[in-house]
Amino acid sequence: MPFHYDKDSDGIVTLTMDMSGSANVMNTEYQELMGDAVSKLEGDDITGVIITSAKKTFFAGGDLNVLIAIMPENASQALEGVEELKSQLRRLEKLGKPVVAAINGSALGGGFEIALASHRRIVLNDNSIRVGLPEATLGLLPGGGGVTRMVRLLGVQKALPLLMEGKQLRPERALQAGIVHQVVETREELISEARAWIKANPAPTQPWDVQGAGVPDLKFGDPNSYGLLAAAPAVLSKKSHGVYPAPEKIMATAVEGAYVDFDTALKIEGRYFVELASGQVSKNMITAFWFNLNEVNGRASSTGKRVAKLGVLGAGMMGAGIAEVSAKAGIEVVLKDVTLEAAEKGAGGLEGVKPTDSDSDLAGCDLIIEAVFENRELKNKVLGAAESQALPDAVIASNTSTLPITGLATAVPDAERFIGLHFFSPVPKMRLVEIIRGEKTSEETLQRALDYVRQIGKTPIVVNDSRGFYTSRTFGTYVIEAISMLAEGVAPALIENVAKKSGMAVGPLAVSDEVTLSLQLKIHDQTVADDPSLVSDSAAYDLIREMVGLGRAGKSTGAGFYEYPEGGRKFLWPELATRYVKADAGVSEQDVRDRLLFVQALETVRCLDEGVLTSVADANIGSIFGFGFAPWSGGTLQFINSYGVQAFVERADYLADTYGERFRPPVSLRERDKF
Ligand code: NAD
After folding, report:
1. pLDDT range class, residue 487, cuts 50, 70, 90
2. Which of 577, 568, 546, 572 is nearest to 559 (CA)?
C-alpha cells in the first residue's frame, strides 16, 4: 500500500507516504489513500500520528496535469474535489490525537498544506529542503486550506507576503518565519523528536480551533485593522500590476475569511481557488514555469563530462560575471584581460579565479568563453590565441550578443568545437543562457555546453545561428516599436506605463537608455551594410540618430530618453514631449499595448519558421527569462495560444493594415491551431 500504516507498541502510528511515481502529489490516488488513512486512524485506538515520506521529497504539491485541465465547464467538479481534500485534512487535525509532520524533504504547496493541518511541524535541516506555498508563482492560490491556516497562524501582515510571492523557505528561515516549530539535524532525531512531542502533548488543539480565535491582526472594530485594510490595495498593485489575479484572490481570501468562522473561510478559499485554476493566467504560468521549464532543464546529456578548468577572455562586466558564477560552481577559472590590473579588477579577489594577462595561463582549459569588446577582428584574434593553448578537444565559445556564430567559428581550426554561450546581464542574477549552434557545431559540443550550463545552475535554451539569435533579435523589435510610436507622436509616458502595465519587466525607452542608443545605431548601421533588406523602420532610427546627435546617447552618457539627476531618481526628459508628441497621434492605449506585445510574438513565430527556434519551450522560457516578456502570458508563443491563434491573426491583420506590414502574420500562423 503506497501509504504505509505502522502502529508501534506505544500506539503511535507512522504514516509513510509512498505514492506510485517519483514523488507524492495531490491527485485522485492521493485522495483515496489519505481518505482511507484518516478513516483508519479515526477507528483505531492510537496515541498519535507521525506523517512522513518514503520519497526524496516530503510531498511535491498539486498534480499540475490535473490542475491545468480545470476549465470553467468542469469547475464545480473540481470544487467538490478540493472540498473533499480539505475535509480529510480537517478530520486529521480534529482526531483529538497529536499529529506531527516529520518533514524529511521539501514540502511545497499541497505538501505544506498537509503539514499545516498537523499540530507540529518538524523539519530536517538539509540544504536541499524548501518549505512553503509557491502556488502564486503558477497563478494559483493554496486551495487546500493553505491561505486560511497561514493567515490564522501568522496574521495577514506576515502571511500575505509569503503567500502572494509564493516564497519557498529553507528550514532555518521557515523556523524564523514561524511556519514550522522545530528544525533537527538528523533523520533519527526527526522521528525521536516527533515521538517525544506526541507523548508530551496527548490532546493538542490547532491555534484556529481555540475558543474565540480569529486572524490575529484583523479584528472587528480595531482601528489598526482598518489601517491595514486601507494600505492593502497599494501593496497589492505593487505585487500584481493589475495582470496577476492570484495575489488579488489571495488577499480577498485572507480578508473575507478573517471575519467568518474557520470552516466558512475554507469555503471562500475553495471558491477563489477554482476561479484561478479555471482561468487563463494559471494555465499560461503552469505551461511556462512548469512544463516548458522542465523541458529545457531536462535536456538529455550524453557526455557526463564536467568542466574542470575554464578560461574567460575579457574581464569586463560580462566576463567577470561568467568567472564568478563558474568559480562558485567549483570550476577552476582563469580570467584574462589585456592588463593584469584589468583582470584583477574583474576577478575581484574571488576564490577560484586566477587573473592574468597571459595566454599561457590558459593551458589545460577544457572550455574557453570569449567576452571581449563586440568587435569581429578582436574576437578572431583572442579566440585564435586562446584556442592554441587550451586542450585539443576543448569547447570554444563566444558570448557575443550580435555577431553570427558561424562566422566567428572561422577563428579556430576546428569549427565543430565552436559554439555561442550568450549570457545575460547581470550574470549572477539572470538565470538564462542562450546556447547558439553554429552551422558546423557538433552534437558533442552542444551536449558539453548544456552540461556546463547545468553545472553552473543556469537554465539553457538552444537556438540556431541568426543575427541577434532569438533573444536579442526579438527584444530588439520591442524597443524599436516603442521608438517608432514615439516618432509617430505617442506620449513617452504612455508607452512606458502601458509596457509595464502589460507585464513587461522594463519599459522600452528605459531599456534603450541602458543598452545605449549609440550601440543600437552601430548595430543597425552594421546590419544595413551587411543586408539592407533586414531593417525596415527608418523613422525609429532617425529619431535615435537625432537623440545621439543631441548628446543623449543613453544612461552611461548621463542622458537619454530619461534624465539621470545625481543622487535622484531618473525621469523622462521633458523635452521629449515638446519635440515629438502630437495631440492627434491617434494610437489608442490598447493599440500601444498590442503593438508592443504582438511585435515580439510575431518575431518569435518568424524565428520558429526560420528554424532559429526549434521548440515552443525554448521560445517561452527564453522570452521570460532572457528579456522579461510578461510572465503572466507564459511567454511569446503561449501569449498567442491564450489569445487564441485565430483571434491573434485577425488582430495582427488589423495592426498590419493600420501600422505596417511588420504585423502581417506569417502563413504558418494562419494555418495553426495552437503552439
Ligand atoms: P566590457 O566592455 O565591459 O568588457 C570587455 C573587456 O574585454 C574589457 O575588460 C577589455 O579590457 C577586455 N578586452 C579587450 N581586448 C582584450 C584582449 N585582447 N584580451 C583580453 N581582454 C580584452 O564588455 P561587456 O559588456 O562585458 O561585453 C563583452 C561581450 O559580451 C561583448 O561581445 C558583448 O556583446 C557581450 N554581451 C554583453 C551583454 C551586456 O549586457 N553588456 C550581454 C550579453 C553579451
Report:
1. very high
2. 572
Q: Is the CB of 115 under 6 A from ligand 1?
A: no
* CB proximity list for 408: less than 8 A, separation 6 or greater: 376, 379, 380, 383, 398, 400, 418, 420, 438
Spatial distance between the Cα atoms of 179 and 168, rounded to a whole number of angstroms: 11
Per-residue model confidence as pLDDT tens digits over 198-250: 999 999 999 999 988 888 888 777 777 777 777 777 777 776 777 899 999 99
What is the spatial distance between Cα 366 and Cα 387, in angstroms, rounded to a whole number?
10
CATH topology of domain 472-611+644-670: N-(1-d-carboxylethyl)-l-norvaline Dehydrogenase; domain 2 (1.10.1040)
Task: Indicate if ligand 1 lies below 6 Å from the C-beta of 317.
Answer: yes
Mean pLDDT for 165-181 is 97
The SS3 of residue 121 is: strand
> How many residues comprise the chain?
675
Nine-digit cell string for 504: 513587461
Nearest to 508 by CA among 487, 534, 531, 533: 487
Question: What is 309-463's CATH number?
Answer: 3.40.50.720
Are 643 and 583 in contact by the 8 Å Cβ rule? The answer is no
8 A C-beta contact, residue 555 and residue 517: no
Give the whole-angstrom CA distance, residue 431 versus residue 441.
Answer: 24
Cell matching residue 648: 491573434
Collapsed DSSP state (helix, strand, coil) of residue 447: helix
Place of cell 552542444: 446
Domain residue limits, the chain = 3-278, 309-463, 472-611+644-670
Q: Which of the listed residues 336, 360, 373 should we mutate to test ligand 1's pocket, taking the one with most ligand atoms within 8 A of CB?
A: 373
Give the tens place of pLDDT for each residue, 352-389: 999 999 999 999 999 999 999 988 999 999 999 999 99
Pocket of ligand 1, candidates 337, 405, 430, 473: which has the most ligand atoms within 8 Å of its Cβ, to mutate?
337
Residue 62 is placed in which grid cell? 498539486
How many CB atoms lie under 10 A from the CB of residue 610?
11
pLDDT value for 260: 93
Q: 664: which 3 cell numbers?
A: 502581417
Task: Give start and end residues of each alpha helix (H) in 506-588.
Answer: 508-515, 517-530, 538-549, 574-580
Beta bridge partners of 7: 13
ipTM associated with this complex? 0.97
The angle formed by the CA atoms of residues 642, 647 and 650, to the nearest 5 degrees, is: 145
| Topology at the third CATH level for domain 3-278 | 2-enoyl-CoA Hydratase; Chain A, domain 1 (3.90.226)
- The predicted model gives 306-310 an average pLDDT of 96
Atom 39, ligand 1: residue with shortest CA distance:
425
Task: Find out whether 605 and 649 touch, Cβ atoms under 8 Å.
Answer: no
Dihedral Cα 207, 208, 213, 219, nearest 10 deg: 120
Q: Looking at 441-566, which runs of residues are DSSP E strands?
A: 459-464, 562-563
Q: In the prediction, which pLDDT does 646 show?
A: 97
